[in-house]
Amino acid sequence: MTITQVTNYVFAFALLFTASSYGQVVSTTTQLESALANATPGSTITLANKTWTNVELSINKSGTQDQPIIIEAQTSGSVFFEGNSHVKLGGKYIIFKGIVFQNASNIDTDTPVIEFKSAQDCNYCTVTDIKIDAYNGTNAQEKETFKWILLRGTHNEVSYSSFIGKHGVGSIINDNRSSTEANYHKIHHNYFADRTPVGEINDLNDQDAIRLGSSSTSLSDSYSEVYNNYFYNFSGEIEVISNKSGKNKYYNNTFEDYQGALTLRHGNGCEVYNNFFFANKNVFSGGIRVMGENHNIYNNYIEGVNSKKPDGSTSGGTGGINVSNGKPDSSLNEYYQVKNVNIVNNTFVDCDYGLRIGTKIKSTNTLAPENVIVANNLIYENTVKAIQVITELIGTLSKFEGNIKQNGTWDIDTDADGNISVTSGLLSSQDNFYRIVAGSDAVNAGKGSYSFLTEDILGGIRPSNFDVGAEELNAGGVSFPYSQLDVGVTVGFGGKSTLGIGEASIQDTKLLIYPLPSKSDYINVSLGNRILGTVEIADMSGRIVLKTYCNTTKAELLVSTLKTGTYIVKVQDVSKKIVIK
Q1: pLDDT(20) > 60
Q2: Please, are residues 220 and 154 in contact by the beta-carbon 8 Å criterion?
Q3: Which of 84, 115, 135 is the last residue of a domain?
Q4: Which range marks the domain in which residue 544 is found?
Q5: What pLDDT does residue 578 have?
Q6: Boundaries of each Secretion system C-terminal sorting domain copy (predicted)?
Q7: Are 437 and 472 within 8 A, CB to CB?
Q8: Does residue 562 form part of some domain?
Q9: Could you give the CA distance from residue 285 to residue 99 in angstroms, rounded to a whole number?
Q10: Residue at 30 is within a domain
């Protein structure tokens, strides 16, 4: 036997051993249950392509970071869970992917479609590349709370999935947060579409797309992130997203043809930035609702919101950005006072109301917003009020500064503190949204200094003499809003997982990159004492612009060929945003 023959034989034997130990195709419920019971780190359980009915998939096992347990479709999109099917994931490092849920019948609405808990919570677990398609109860069950995905545990992820046609009470993705432990969940690159309300819009609560937290634990921090999601033709209640915990981030999401708003209902210290809202004049549509303390809301583009209710009256909870009054001695489930909030560099286009300050959704909400900065917002052709002040801001830090409107009226002093009104030239319609143009009064007109304002809505760099509004002129950003052409390509079920803007949030102090911002030809990269392996640099659209392999713990990378802008460096499971100047 030759050396080549021996090598081939050993390789074939290794493949056979690996397949028999870690990978298996199951085609019956009995085989599936056996595979789940015997799963070990590195196991891959492959569900045969077919329709599975009344599946009760429950696992209580733990993989590892390097060897997760994978439960997947033989071919993504060719495995269908129908009837009364449910999935429960318990343990650590489990990945569930490739399954389509459809054609529900005799559904048990008390049990979520997918729950990150079986006998134990799931931690470091991922649900990705799935589709839940109109998997609803009967009309008689529409007022029963039926959640599609119930998050528990910590460090879990829901990504590249589509959630279509939800009808009936119950969140699509819900994290009840029964404890005050931080969660660190990530919800990204998902498609939420075609939800219909029970009755009229907002007749019933709990018809949102995503809810993070609950009233009872809302004063504790979750540190979860919701980014790069696309919400389309969505209608349920006033809260498309319901934030009920602290230190969460919402960014790079697109909302199109929807009703409701991204709502900071409870919780403190959240960030809402780089989101696009295209309400298309739908009644009862808004942008961002604000309650609580220490939020930063910036670089958002909000177009075509309509504060009218279906009956023609005006809602007190909508508008481009709506800053609520608080209630004295508020209970956890009521209205905490707004304090220490920055609302800066947002763009409003053709809305009825741009910013609404001190709204009173209830007569008992009498506490004015305190120490709120409203600065550098661009308000273009609003039809009712560019800025409506119902209750005056209080606190020594509160101010309206550097805001610019084109036509329309507002309840602040024009020409005071840099707030100005112009008759034309602020924006131009292009690329399916209104953009800043040369000669605009917004160029280089920004006031103040904000440590978080380093980029614009498209990912371009903000200079020290920055522009008013969400976009910086000629900053080079490419993080454009999603459209229907992106579904199944870069977002939602079947979407391509690429290194993109979403991964920029995954930070690790062990990933050291210097000098930053880089003005030299090289950057130095290290990851503690770990061998670097594959190092990738991507632009903000996710396109890989540099890829190399380093069999060392430190590396010097040539970046002089890269254009000025923001990039993401990815080393193993860690990513960090860098700026090249």
Answers
A1: no
A2: no
A3: 135
A4: 505-580
A5: 82
A6: 513-580
A7: no
A8: yes
A9: 33
A10: yes
| DSSP codes joined into one string, 366-431 | -BPPEEEEEES-EEES-SSEEEEESS--BSTT-EEES-EEESS-BSS-TTSTT-EEESS-SEEEET
Where in 41-85 does DSSP place strands (E)? 44-47, 50-53, 56-62, 69-73, 79-83
Q: Hunting for tokens 């998997």 — which residue is that?
A: 135
Helix (H) or strand (E) holding 522: strand 522-527
pLDDT in tens, 29-45: 999 999 999 999 999 99
Q: What CA–CA distance (Å, rounded) separates 14 from 254?
A: 47
Domain count, the chain: 2
Question: Left, alpha or beta for 474 (phi > 0: left; psi -120 to 50: alpha)?
Answer: left
Residue found under tokens 């959640």: 147
Token pair of 311, please? 């009956």
Compute the distance between CA of residue 477 and CA of residue 517 in angstroms, rounded to an integer: 17
3-state secondary structure 532-548: CEEEEEEECCCCEEEEE
**Spatial CA neighbour of 118 closest among 223, 24, 218, 33:** 33
Mean pLDDT of the chain: 92
Map tokens 């130095």 to a residue: 524
Q: Which of 430, 400, 393 is nearest to 414 (CA)?
A: 400
Distance, in Å, from the CA atom of 443 to the CA atom of 466, rounded to the nearest integer, reads 7
| Domain-embedded: residue 173 | no
CATH number at residue 573: 2.60.40.3080
**314 neighbors 340 (Cβ within 8 angstroms):** no
Q: In the predicted model, is pLDDT for residue 503 greater than 60?
A: no
Name every residue whose Cβ is closer than 8 Å to that of residue 170 and which is 6 or more positions away in sequence. 109, 144, 145, 146, 147, 148, 206, 207
Beta-bridge partner residues of 353: 385
Cis before 112 (ω within 30): no
Ranking 204-213, 235-244, 434-443, 545-554 by mean pLDDT, the lowest is 545-554
Provide the pLDDT for residue 541.
Answer: 55
CA angle 513, 514, 516 (to 5 degrees): 105
Two tokens, residue 368: 């004015």
Domain boundary among 135, 164, 191: 135
Identify whether 183 is part of a domain. no
Check pLDDT > 80 for residue 505: no
